[in-house]
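Thread: "does anyone have the structure for this chain?"

Original post by V.I.:
We have the sequence but no experimental structure in hand. Need at least a predicted one for the grant figures.
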Amino acid sequence: MKEVQQVHVDWGPDIYKETDTVYPREYFEHLDGLELQVNARNTAARKMYEKLGFTEKSVNLELL
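Reply from O.Q.:
Generated one for you, tokens below.
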């Protein structure tokens, strides 16, 4: 999970801060599920999360 935090820091240093306190993968293994939102236009983020085992659950629609 440290890698995920570092990617966010690299992509948005004005929003995310570096930290040494990151939960290990084992912390999340007892949960029934973990949801997150990724901007569908951000293909690099989508690929990274898919590589980490996340799958697409739903699609949010937006009128631009």
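V.I.: this helps a lot. The helical segments are 2-11, 25-29, 43-51.
O.Q.: and The mean pLDDT is 79.
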